[in-house]
């Protein structure tokens, strides 16, 4: 089984600041973390890997510094990581992000078929919850949301 987990490096919400004029998040000087909801997806992917075997590949679109987030995921037990980065992605909206990540999943699948793609329910910086469904739509995948196991 090959699982791809999409993550995003986000500003630590405990130290976030908003620009007083533009009302946008000020990322300068704010520590970055792996989006907490994406860590839940990684945890579930690792459970499946432990139970059924296979491989977990992390996928992130972001600046070069996002490599740090991917390294953290590797330290938790992921097998591989791919960073999609380009200055052209700066300020990308959810439409562009889902496009880039779905292209990344397709590229990963050229080396080894992908059985499941996980995303967190949303990011703590954008809160749109649109990227996961956007990836599913672009790839023609069945979308499951708000999944829980007992």
What would you give as the CATH superfamily? HUPs
Task: Tell me the major beta sheet.
Answer: 4 strands, parallel
Uncertain spans, ≥5 residues at pLDDT below 50? none
- The helix count comes to 4
H-E order: EEEEEHEHEHEH
Beginning-to-end CA distance, first to last residue: 22 Å
Which of globular, elongated, flat, extended, rod-shaped describes the shape? Answer: globular
CATH architecture: 3-Layer(aba) Sandwich
CATH topology: Rossmann fold
The number of distinct β-strands equals 8
Structural category: alpha/beta
Mind telling me the C-alpha Rg?
15 Å
Total discrete domains: 1
Strand content: 15-25%
Can you walk through the features of this model?
- The chain has four helices and eight strands, in the order βββββαβαβαβα.
- By secondary structure, it is an alpha/beta fold.
- It has a single domain, classed as Rossmann fold, CATH 3.40.50.
- The strands form three sheets. The chain has a four-stranded parallel sheet, with helices on both faces.
- A hairpin with a 6-residue loop joins β3 and β4.
- The relative contact order is 0.21.
């Amino acid at each position: 089984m090959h699982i791809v987990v999409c993550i995003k490096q986000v500003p630590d919400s405990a130290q976030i600041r908003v620009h007083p004029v533009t009302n946008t998040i000020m990322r300068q000087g704010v520590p970055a973390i792996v989006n907490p909801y994406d860590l839940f997806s990684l945890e579930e992917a690792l459970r499946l890997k432990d139970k059924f075997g296979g491989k977990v590949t992390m996928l992130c679109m972001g600046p070069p510094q996002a490599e740090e987030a991917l390294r953290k995921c590797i330290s938790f037990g992921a097998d591989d990581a791919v960073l999609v980065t380009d200055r052209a992605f700066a300020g990308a909206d959810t439409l562009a992000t889902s496009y880039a990540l779905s292209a990344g999943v397709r590229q990963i699948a050229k080396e080894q078929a992908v059985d499941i793609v996980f995303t967190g329910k949303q990011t703590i910086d954008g809160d749109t919850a649109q990227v996961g469904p956007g990836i599913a739509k672009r790839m023609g995948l069945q979308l499951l949301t708000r999944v829980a196991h007992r």
